Task: structure prediction
Amino acid sequence: MSNFAIMVLLLAVGSVASFIVTNKAGKNSNKINMGIWAALTITSLCLWYFK
Result:
């Protein structure tokens, strides 16, 4: 599996996760979504850096 495919997969997971969080958490969703996207960004950068 290529790193690009992994990054696309991470983006898909992040989109689904933030969508679910927004529906469930309501007011607190922004902070949680920021955390989700920060984690995904860091993970994808690490994958890209250590390929």
Observations:
- The mean pLDDT is 78.
